[in-house]
Amino acid sequence: MTTSQPPAAGVLRQHAEDAYADELAALAAVDDRPRPPSWHLSPWAVATYVLGGALPDGTVVTPKYLGQRRLVEVAISSLATDRALLLLGVPGTAKSWLGEHLAAAISGRSTLVVQGTAGTQEEALRYGWNYARLLAEGPSREALVPGPVMRAMETGAIARIEELTRIPSDVQDSLISILSEKTLPIPDLDEEVQARPGFNVIATANNRDKGVNDLSSALRRRFNTVVLPLPDTLEQEVEIVRTRVTALGASLELPADLASLSEIQRVVTVMRELRSGVTTDQRTTIKSPSSTLSTAEAISVMTNGLALAAHFGDGTVRAEDVAGSLLGAVVKDPVQDQLVWQEYLETVVRNRREWSDLYRACRDLG
């Protein structure tokens, strides 16, 4: 997951289709392969947009997702069928990021989004009403307020549902008829909305989160599931963090020396060792904290360190700039995680001579 283009002035974060409009236009210009109905690009071009590459005209397409090519191809192929796509994985594995870019490349828009929460109601997945107009005029199409999924059905686009398993189970099940029959009944108007070609759904769900509502078997059958793994290697994860921190630093206008982000490798190493329960050299077994310690958290630690270095230092990120955020990322449970962190500090960090500055910075925090 990478990006290098800064947002436009006045916008903190552009939608994917706006931030990478030039790349999408270049891909469309050279894309002569068959496209599924209503798709803006062919599956090949969508994969190239997500994974990066060089086009015949010399345009370089930056990679948006760093991971297994086959997983991305399976995800794209699923969306070209009548099956919806479920991106599953632990927090911080770029599920939402990948879903946004797939929707941007396929439909040209990534903004038909339902954010799943414990309070999400059926209206968010189907439609609601303008109650003032409903009371004044009675049920009518003008009084109906379509939700993102309904608008995607009407326009043949991709709808995104974030955190599907945080939505109550009875509300989740309202998707069954939409995904199976491609039809959304509107009983009050005695009519229905039939999905146009190109309509599909990308949903995301965490498989290690607490307080979730499992999908029913009936709904699960409507999805093709792609499990996104954590980065395979230290080098791959370091590269993901480096590119994201570089992009975030540029968008936040942090005047830091991005070339000197040597702390990234140490932060990522700490995250990988604590979540795997063993040191990189496989010689020491350690306890894992309750937190996920995903790539997203490593990005957050480095971005906070970048801000500290930019505003209160000389622009170079050092151990004392990342120690506080690192402690906050690891210690979610003030009792158990604190014990895990202290043990890791004394048995691993302390014994690495080249990490002495990080050890002192963490110890100074108490």
TrEMBL record:
It comes from the Bacteria. Pfam families: AAA_5. Gene3D superfamilies: P-loop containing nucleotide triphosphate hydrolases. Residues 85-223 form the ATPase dynein-related AAA domain. InterPro entries: ATPase_dyneun-rel_AAA (IPR011704), CbbQ/NirQ/NorQ/GpvN (IPR050764), P-loop_NTPase (IPR027417). SUPFAM superfamilies: P-loop containing nucleoside triphosphate hydrolases. PANTHER family: MAGNESIUM-CHELATASE SUBUNIT CHLD, MOXR FAMILY PROTEIN. This is AAA family ATPase.
